[in-house]
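Fold it.
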Amino acid sequence: MHKISILVVEDDKAVRNLITTTLEAHGYLYRAAGTGEAAILEAVSGRPDIIILDLGLPDMDGVEIIEKVRGWSRCPIIVVSARSEDRDKIEALDAGADDYLTKPFSVDELLARIRVAIRKMSYDNSGAGEDAVFQNGGLKIDYSAGCVYVEDREVHLTPIEYKLLCLLAKNLGKVLTHNYILKSIWVNVLESDVPSLRVFMATLRKKIEKDPSNPRYIQTHIGVGYRMIRRQGDES
C-alpha cells in the first residue's frame, strides 16, 4: 500500500518538529524544509503527495512557492500560517493552495485537513481515469493535461478557476449551491464568502464565454448558486 509522503515547509523549528512528529506518529512519510529555496528543491526532487506550507519564510513568500509548484504539480497544498486576514487566505488560495489553516492550530485539525486532501486526491485520480476528456459543446477540459479549450483555442485559467470549472463539469446540469461550491473548492475556509466566489466566477466567465452577460455554459441561479448548462454539438 502506498504511503503518503508529505513535505513540511516551516522555518520555526518548534512548529516544524510538532508537525513532523505528528506525521511520523500517524504513519506518514515526510521531508522537511526551512526555506523557500529548500522547499522547491524538495518538491522537485521528492515529488511529495501533499505539501504543508508556512507563508512567512525567511527567503521568499509562501505564495511565490505555491505559484512555482503549480507550474508543474497539482499536489494538494495545505497552508499553515499566522496570517489570518481574508485577503491573505484569498491570495494563497487563488495562487493554488487547497486549504488554509491558521496558527495556532490543533494537531487533530491538521490531521483532519490531511485526510480531506487524501480523499480529494483519490477522487481526482479516479475521475480522471474514468473520463480523461470532458466535452460540452465548444468547451473541452483535458483532465490529464489540466488544459481547457473553447472552440479549440486553449484558455489559460488560474488554479481556482480551473477547480471551479471542473466541479461544475463533473456535476453537469445540476445546480450547485454557493456553500457546496465553497466547501468543495476551499475546504470550509471561505464557506460564507459568497462575494469572493462571485468574483472568481466572473473572471472564469470572461475567459470561457463569448458574452459573459449572456452565458452559454455557466448559469447563475440568483441567491442559490451556479449550474453548467448542457450544450449540444459545436458552439458557434
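The chain has a mean pLDDT of 87.
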